[in-house]
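A.,

Following up on our hallway conversation. Structure tokens first:
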């Protein structure tokens, strides 16, 4: 150890355990301090007094009582203001003053949520035949019929209220027309896909033409949509899967197809798997595309549960009604894909795996034999995917090695055309 005065090497004192230096000045200083420390009285150690842990007493929140009379006065004022805005807006709409009609009717609509914050007794002051929500559809229609500059804003704000499906479909048509007219074709394509879900379908040929005008190959987009439907949300976020139409990260983008970038954030992210399947369904052009689409729909339906768990439940007799319904839908999807893709082995492997886990071993072996005669695509798919597909079927049949295949369930990378040998029936 070192001396605390001169930092020279020193020994430890046996009385006070401090540094004892050989130098005279340091030794004198140490002697004085050591005698003082040794003269201190030594007492018994103080026992630690156990302390009880502090008790947590939750603070009771004082419930604020409603002032019924004040809320009733506020409700009367709100009803008067909303009624005045409605009358002024509808009068302006009849006279053709569309700007005033837009401002007045939307002012009435913005005041209506304040009535919901009041108590039920306060809302009793409203007239019996009073309209609870301002109908803004006539305003949007009138603005669109006259090609007014605020028509698109009216439809967007109307869609934020989530009106009936027929109104949403009508709004989608106007927004798509505006997007294509302004040259933003990819946004227009996204709106057209949304309109198809709302019952305003577009012909596949028109979709293919619109995709080509937007600079996107429809065949490539069809394959991308099928591949995206097999990727779950976490994987899509990890690999940075992006929407071909918007360029945004697909799993985190706003599901409101009518929203602008300046609007409030979405309450929940989009389900990119369902959206990609719907878009692929719109691009379905022919029997072969329908087969690839059915294969992807079967994979998506089997995704949350898995063929292994679903088949085991069916075989053990513990499947509920939802499991049995899912089993039938998945099997029909794979059988439809096998019928429309006569040269493709993917649906046959899927059927063999499903029926093997469900206990239908004879049918599974027949499908397995059919799959072995067919193609999986290019050589890379045959080399990497066929051994794992075989292992999955053998695991369901119980004839494979101990343990289950640990690799990810393979899927076709992209659709491929009919092989020449199958066209000539050389098999």
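Then the amino acids I'd put at each of the 427 positions:
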């Amino acid at each position: 150890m070192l001396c605390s005065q001169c930092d020279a090497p020193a020994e430890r004192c046996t009385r006070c355990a401090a540094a004892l230096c050989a130098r005279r000045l340091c030794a004198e200083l140490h002697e004085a301090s050591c005698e003082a420390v040794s003269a201190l009285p030594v007492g018994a150690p103080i026992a630690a007094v156990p302390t009880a842990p502090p008790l947590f007493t939750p603070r009771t929140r004082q419930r604020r009582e409603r002032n019924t009379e004040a809320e009733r006065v506020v409700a009367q004022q709100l009803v008067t203001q909303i009624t005045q805005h409605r009358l002024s807006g509808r009068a302006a709409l009849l006279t053709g003053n569309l700007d005033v009609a837009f401002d007045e009717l939307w002012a009435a609509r913005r005041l209506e949520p304040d009535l919901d914050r009041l108590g039920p007794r306060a809302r009793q002051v409203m007239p019996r035949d009073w309209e609870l929500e301002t109908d803004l559809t006539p305003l949007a229609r009138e603005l669109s019929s006259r090609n007014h500059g605020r028509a698109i804003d009216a439809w967007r704000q109307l869609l934020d209220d989530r009106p009936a499906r027929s109104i949403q479909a009508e709004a989608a048509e106007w927004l798509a027309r505006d997007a294509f007219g302004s040259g933003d074709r990819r946004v227009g394509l996204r709106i057209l896909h949304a309109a198809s879900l709302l019952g305003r379908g577009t012909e596949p040929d028109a979709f293919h033409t619109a995709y080509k005008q937007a600079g996107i190959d429809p065949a490539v987009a069809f394959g991308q949509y099928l591949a995206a439907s097999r990727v779950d949300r976490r994987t899509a976020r990890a690999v940075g899967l992006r929407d071909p139409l918007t360029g945004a990260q697909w799993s985190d983008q706003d599901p409101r197809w009518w929203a602008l970038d300046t609007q409030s954030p979405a309450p929940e992210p989009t389900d990119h798997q369902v959206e990609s399947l719907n878009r692929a369904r719109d691009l379905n052009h022919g029997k072969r595309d329908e087969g690839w689409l059915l294969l992807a729909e079967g994979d998506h339906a089997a995704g949350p549960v898995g063929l292994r768990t679903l088949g085991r439940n069916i075989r053990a007799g513990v499947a509920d009604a939802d499991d049995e319904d899912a089993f039938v839908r998945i099997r029909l999807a794979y059988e439809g894909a096998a019928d429309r893709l006569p040269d493709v082995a993917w649906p046959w492997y899927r059927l063999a795996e499903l029926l093997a886990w469900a206990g239908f071993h004879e049918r599974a072996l027949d499908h397995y034999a059919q799959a072995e005669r067919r193609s999986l695509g290019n050589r890379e798919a045959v080399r990497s995917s066929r051994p794992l597909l075989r292992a999955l079927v053998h695991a369901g049949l119980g004839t494979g090695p101990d343990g289950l295949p640990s690799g990810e369930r393979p899927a076709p990378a992209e659709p491929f055309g009919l092989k020449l040998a199958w066209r000539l029936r050389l098999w």
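The first helix runs from residue 24 to 38. Curious whether your intuition agrees with the design.

B.
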